[in-house]
Amino acid sequence: MLDALEWGAHSLPGIFCGFLEVSGLTYEVNPTTPSPCVQDGQNQLDYIDGNMARRVGNVLVNGVPLDPEKTYKVCMTSYLFEGGYGYSMFVGCTALLQDMAADNEALINYLKSLPDGALQERYGDPYGDGRIVAVGGEN
User: Fold this and answer.
1) What's the pLDDT score for residue 83?
2) Of 38, 80, 93, 101, most Cβ neighbours within 10 A?
3) Is the pTM for the entire model greater than 0.70?
């Protein structure tokens, strides 16, 4: 997950269509720190340069620091799962295949599960709810 968050933030402050939207976790990203992400010839994440500082930090899962040794349940589109937008860390990760549904089917089921008015209440603020915070330099 740390590598995925790092890859998602690698182009900041520029635009990257694969920037990750998150739920259940919060993190800080410093776009003034050079990205430690190294791409291969197909614009996939090849590796994280361990000699460089990470841009992403203070990752909390439900308010608790992310434990690199723990297994977490994640939800993503099949496009990301298959390495779309350069997310190579998920390719071939068969442990993630549990309960995989079509992207639109998962979204429809989620929306149907919400009580009336919950969607606007939960997602009505166009500025978000502070899950991703830019630090360092100008925000």
Assistant:
1) 87
2) 80
3) yes
